[in-house]
UniProtKB/TrEMBL annotation:
<dbReference type="Pfam" id="PF02298">
    <property type="entry name" value="Cu_bind_like"/>
</dbReference>
<dbReference type="InterPro" id="IPR003245">
    <property type="entry name" value="Phytocyanin_dom"/>
</dbReference>
<feature type="compositionally biased region" description="Low complexity">
    <location>
        <begin position="124"/>
        <end position="172"/>
    </location>
</feature>
<feature type="signal peptide">
    <location>
        <begin position="1"/>
        <end position="23"/>
    </location>
</feature>
<dbReference type="GO" id="GO:0009055">
    <property type="term" value="F:electron transfer activity"/>
</dbReference>
<feature type="region of interest" description="Disordered">
    <location>
        <begin position="123"/>
        <end position="172"/>
    </location>
</feature>
<keyword id="KW-0732">Signal</keyword>
<dbReference type="InterPro" id="IPR008972">
    <property type="entry name" value="Cupredoxin"/>
</dbReference>
<dbReference type="GO" id="GO:0005886">
    <property type="term" value="C:plasma membrane"/>
</dbReference>
<feature type="domain" description="Phytocyanin">
    <location>
        <begin position="24"/>
        <end position="122"/>
    </location>
</feature>
<keyword id="KW-0472">Membrane</keyword>
<dbReference type="GO" id="GO:0046872">
    <property type="term" value="F:metal ion binding"/>
</dbReference>
<protein>
    <submittedName>
        <fullName>Blue copper protein</fullName>
    </submittedName>
</protein>
<keyword id="KW-0325">Glycoprotein</keyword>
<dbReference type="InterPro" id="IPR039391">
    <property type="entry name" value="Phytocyanin-like"/>
</dbReference>
<keyword id="KW-1133">Transmembrane helix</keyword>
<keyword id="KW-0479">Metal-binding</keyword>
Length: 197
């Protein structure tokens, strides 16, 4: 009886370690990063973004990552950012389902292709654990010129900024939050403990 309890505890431990690894980290633009001249709509095609995933923007500090409304995205309007960052390495946690819009806040850059729309599905991916990274965000309400637009449920929320900066750069477009090696080693240790118990 005791060995089955230990086995169940080990199985539960492994399950708890593997489930958080379902969230993915996407490096925007892959090796090109966040810059002019990249077709970000092509980059997003074929990718499924879910609540709990993260976007990593890597760029020179002469650019910004601004989360904006649908209207500001469509017209490349700068100055009304919901959140903004210019650290050169910005990680955005996708906390809500809906379409999230990002542009470079430098005048002319959005018109040269530095704009990204990401449709986020609600899914089984859990929200990532809070990090100890610095956050540079400023919440601003959209200008009165967007008030005539019909309300849209896919506009980003202005109540909770979601931009955080990270000092590390991810190597490829999508990766597991937990190393598969760690998960496999943990599974083997749990299996070993189950067998010897």
């Amino acid at each position: 009886m005791a060995s089955s309890s230990v086995g169940m505890a080990c199985l539960l431990l492994v399950s708890c370690m593997v489930v958080p690894s379902l969230a993915k980290v996407y490096t925007v633009g892959d090796a090109s990063g966040w810059t002019t001249g990249v077709d970000y709509s092509t980059w997003t095609s074929g990718k499924t973004f879910k609540v709990g995933d993260s976007l990593v923007f890597n760029y020179p500090t002469s650019h910004t990552v601004d989360e904006v409304s649908s209207s500001d995205y469509s017209t490349c309007t700068v100055g009304n950012a919901i959140t903004t960052d210019n650290s050169g390495a910005t990680t955005v946690a996708l906390k809500k389902a809906g379409t999230h819009y990002f542009i470079c806040g430098v005048v002319g850059h959005c018109g040269n292709g530095m704009k990204l729309a990401v449709k986020v599905e609600s899914g089984s991916a859990p929200a990532p654990a809070p990090s100890k990274s610095k956050s540079k965000s400023s919440a601003k309400s959209p200008s009165s010129s967007t008030a005539s637009s019909p309300p849209s449920s896919d506009k980003p929320s202005t109540t909770t900024p979601s931009t955080t900066t990270a000092t590390t750069k991810a190597a490829d477009s999508s990766s597991w939050s937990l190393s598969p090696f760690v998960a496999v080693v943990t599974a083997w240790v749990a299996l070993f403990l189950m067998v010897i118990s």
